[in-house]
Amino acid sequence: MKGQNKLFIAIIIALIVGVAIGGFVHIQYPESAKPFAANIKLLGTVFIRLVQMIIAPLVFTTLVVGIAKMSDIKMIGRVGSKAMLWFISASLISLFIGLILVNWLEPGHVTKLPIQDVASADELLKSSKGFSMEDFVKHIIPKSIFEAFATNEVLQIVVFSIMFGVALANLGDEYSQPVIKLFDIIAHAILKMVGYIMWFAPLGVLGAIAAVVATNGFEIFKVYAIYLRDFFFAIAVLWLVLLIVGYLILGNRLFELLRRIKSPLLIAFSTTSSEAVFPKLVEELERFGCNNRVVSFILPLGYSFNLDGSMMYMTFASIFIAQIYGIEMTVGQQITMLLVLMLTSKGIAGVPRASLVIIVATCSMFGIPPEGIALILPIDHFCDMARSMTNVLGNALATSAVSKWEGQLDNHGGDM
Helices marked H in 325-353 — which ranges? Predict the structure, then answer.
């Protein structure tokens, strides 16, 4: 744990230094802020790309090994059913919390934001055009596993891995064991790489934070204070609900889990990428005592189906935009929107600004001016910090809970 504490402290220091450097550039050299941000942001880009480099092979090998080792198809079905029960329940609760709190707090009614140039939203608007059920199906089922690997389409990789793992489990030991052993070795080799990559995290955090503060300055916090206050309050409520449920299932071991995942939580918060901590989260959950087969099966699924922070944010932001434009939505319309978001939000992990694309598509469906997304673009980075961290917490709890229900949670920590 000494190494983990050193990494945690290094990330905290990088976070503070990044804010200080960004603020200094914004105040002293405002004319140089954009080129400075573009250059220092490369530190964050390098870190994210290092992690993205190992996401696809890690998801594929761990999920295939996890399913193939189960060998019992009934066990796969049982574990999968428990996981999906958690995912659907957590998603609905997250959406409802966002819906209830945005209607109660009404940040769009009390905040007077200038209508910004919608040019900043053009790219998102183009990305959302033509969204349909056909696109959703295409996003789930890969036409080529190599294309899915090349583009890091987590959900498509999960679909292929599950089918491949089930087929491997039914081949018999003579054929399956050599393949399982090979993939197991590859997975652990990639996890070894995680240890090296994570020591680049402080530089990545420094670059990402310094860039956004240098560009927007500290004023960004004042202009959007009410929206940020209400959103972070909603996130706190969601955390409270998740932690209460976690305590009911895990008891006092919940606090041990939180100590284990503190670095992944902080990295997700700082880099706004829950994908960036996937390999580290696999490692820490196994050390916490979760069965490696369950971790290998549940966590990749969670990254496609269990994005609690993103789910809550999508209802919160969509209704906020409606409030800004004075559009009153009936309870029925809002419930319908919730169900639409429940369906369209699956498989968005690892897709940059995917939450915003889904919000734009949803607003268009319900007669809310999609250009309103431009209102929240300047502070989306800070909201993304909270929702990314919440996604990590939700998936850690889901994996730990299913391990406990399966009687596969080791009290003394798991072997790597």
Answer: 331-344
